[in-house]
């Protein structure tokens, strides 16, 4: 019975991995097929023409630059907003805490199209209300940043709030009793404890922004991001250049993941060596 359960478990794992990876393999294979349609059948021979076409696509590079700039701006705004919200929520209690928590989490539950349209309408109405034609009130990448921050900051807040549950508040009280100011206590005691969650929140904010489509579509104005670029390609007639772009993004993700894992393993090995030497 135990042996049969192990066989079924391994079979399930194989099928699950195939379900996840097989579409990526087929998609990646289409980037090397000398066929004008993104497919692996019929196979017409190996080629790198789609990567060359992608390299020469100026619009794609502009969209890529815009995507990175927006993602950096979103991370720069979402991290302090989410961190501050988490610290505030953790420091209060009662109905005020529940109300503030619900207010911060609510944008996660709202559809992206609703957030995008709401952001566009709000700043348009606000610009008319103040009687200004200032460019910040017009659609553009800056509105995409504001729209994305309105819900991505909630992800950062949840990560930091979870990290705060393991924080010993007695350390803050001891620091204040010893004469430290509130700013010094936050900078030297609280923030070092929150750094792992803050860095994780920054990474999530960055990648959430990169893959965002609905909010960006309604707020971008005439600018392109990668998701909008891919969407326009699908509408106008998709070619394997999209598959080439996907292969590059997957490889970058794998390299980043492997690099992070190697760095973490080396760090743990150094810490284990130091701990062993101290013993």
Notes on the structure:
The protein is mainly alpha-helical and 279 residues long. The chain has a domain of 177 residues: MetI-like fold. 79% of the residues lie in helices and 0% in strands. The chain is built from eleven helices and no strands. The model has no long low-confidence stretch (mean pLDDT 83).
Main beta sheet, described? none
Residue fraction in strands: under 5%
- What form results from the Cα inertia axes? globular
Would you state the CATH class of the domain at 62-238?
Answer: Mainly Alpha
Quaternary state reads single chain
Low-confidence stretches: none
**What name does the CATH topology of the domain at 62-238 carry?**
MetI-like fold
Mean pLDDT: 83
Helix content: over 70%
CATH superfamily of the domain at 62-238: MetI-like
């Amino acid at each position: 019975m135990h042996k049969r359960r192990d066989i079924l478990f391994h079979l399930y794992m194989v099928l699950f991995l195939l379900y996840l990876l097989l579409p990526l393999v087929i998609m990646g294979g289409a980037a090397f097929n000398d066929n004008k349609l993104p497919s692996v059948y019929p196979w017409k021979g190996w080629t790198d023409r789609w990567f060359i076409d992608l390299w020469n696509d100026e619009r794609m590079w502009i969209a890529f630059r815009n995507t990175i700039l927006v993602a950096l701006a979103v991370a720069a705004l979402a991290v302090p907003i989410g961190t501050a919200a988490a610290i505030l929520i953790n420091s209060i209690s009662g109905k005020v805490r529940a109300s503030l928590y619900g207010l911060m989490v609510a944008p996660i539950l709202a559809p992206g199209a609703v957030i995008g349209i709401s952001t566009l309408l709000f700043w348009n109405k606000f610009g008319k209300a103040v009687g200004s034609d200032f460019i910040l009130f017009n659609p553009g990448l800056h509105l995409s940043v504001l729209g994305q921050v309105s819900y991505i900051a909630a992800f950062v807040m949840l990560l930091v709030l979870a990290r705060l549950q393991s924080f010993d508040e007695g350390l803050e009280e001891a620091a204040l009793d010893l004469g430290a100011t509130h700013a010094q206590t936050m900078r030297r005691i609280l923030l070092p404890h929150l750094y792992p969650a803050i860095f994780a929140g920054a990474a999530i904010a960055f990648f959430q922004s990169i893959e965002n489509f609905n909010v960006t579509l309604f707020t971008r104005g005439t600018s392109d991001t990668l998701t909008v670029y891919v969407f326009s390609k699908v509408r106008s007639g998709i070619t394997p250049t999209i598959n080439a772009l996907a292969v590059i993004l997957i490889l970058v993700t794998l390299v980043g993941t492997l690099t992070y894992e190697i760095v973490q393993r080396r760090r743990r090995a150094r810490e284990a060596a130091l701990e062993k030497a101290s013993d």
